[in-house]
Amino acid sequence: MSYRPTSVDCLVDLPNQGKSLLMAKNQSALQTIVGATGGGGVGPEGPQGQQGIQGVPGNDGATGSQGAQGIQGVPGNDGAAGSDGAQGLQGIQGIAGNDGAAGAQGQQGIQGIPGDNGAQGAPGADGAQGIQGIQGIQGVQGQQGDQGPAAAWGDVTGTLSNQTDLQTALNGKQASGNYATGTGTANGTNTGDQTITLTGDITGTGTGSFATAIGASKVTDAMKVETSAATSATTGTMTVSMTSEIITITPTGACTFNASGGRVGRIITFSITTSGTTSFTLTWGTNFRKVGTLATGTTSARFFAVTFRCLGNGTTWQEIARTAVQT
């Protein structure tokens, strides 16, 4: 870069280079500075000095005309959404207004016409008849009544055969076969209480029955004979003769019992003993009305009792009691 002085002549020292630099605006000024007043001409132009120090910057030039509008830049990306502002304070609740005056009560409406009575419902069906209760224990026999007065006999004099009226009466009472001594057949009509001493079973043939029913408490418990019998098998289907009061069984498999025979009102109980570790199912089949089957369980030496009563037809047996397992 060159430095061309315009209005000031000066001498500039360059200590770093061991030189001085003389600057003038023209040759005349230069001659004035160095005192060159001789008539000699101007020597040849010396070599170009080193570039002078940059002068003070000139004044700014006039403002240039505005350049053309540049091309619009690419739109910038949308800025991130701002955070939500803090919630404003809740306003103070206004004073509650006074209650309005109560409205006048409306007039009562006219009562509607009563509806007709509904038709009476049909009577419900009668419930099923309950199971007949078990017959109660027979009462204790009453004490025997006092013995009646002894018979009074009059005196008979003379020969008995001469007493014709007595003989006729005796002949009528002692008809052939109307008495028994030892073994034989007794027949005829007896009235009142009779005492008969038996030394053996009474047997007979033919048909017949007592003319009247046996009086109450005339047959004591000691006179009743109740029997017990085992079933004909211990597994499978079998026919049970309903003639014993106690029927026993220790099942060895599943069983089905069918009833045979019966007497109205008679009560018979099946007495069941378990065995083994297998549960067997017992079923009461033909001529039985039962609650259901019975499972014997898997424990030995346990006991069940199932009781039936013979109904009015003399052949159907209805269950009236059943126990849970017993030990």
Q: Can you offer a commentary on this structure?
A:
The protein is 6% helix and 18% strand. With 327 residues, it is mainly beta. Among the domains are: 1-36, no CATH class; 228-322, Sandwich (Jelly Rolls), CATH 2.60.120. The strands form three sheets. Strands 3-5-7-11-12-9 form a six-stranded mixed β-sheet, with no helix packed on it. Strand 11 (303-310) and strand 12 (317-322) form a beta hairpin. The protein is rod-shaped, with a radius of gyration of 75 Å. The mean pLDDT is 77.
Concise summary:
Helix content is 6%, strand content 18%.
Question: What attributes characterize this protein structure?
Answer:
327 residues; Jelly Rolls; four-stranded mixed sheet; six-stranded mixed sheet; mainly beta
The major β-sheet equals: 6 strands, mixed
Q: Please bin the fraction of helical residues.
A: under 10%
Specify the number of helices: 2
Order of helices and strands: EEHHEEEEEEEEEE
Give me the Rg, rounded: 75 Å
Please give the order of strands in the largest beta sheet: 3-5-7-11-12-9
CATH class of one domain: Mainly Beta
Task: Please report which band the strand proportion falls in: under 5%, 5-15%, 15-25%, 25-35%, 35-45% or over 45%.
Answer: 15-25%
Intertermini distance: 137 Å
Shape: rod-shaped
Give unreliable regions as ranges.
Answer: none
CATH A-level architecture of one domain = Sandwich
At CATH level 3, the topology of one domain is Jelly Rolls
> Structural class of the helices, strands and pairings?
mainly beta
Give the tally of β-strands.
Answer: 12
Summed over residues and divided by their number, the pLDDT gives a mean of 77
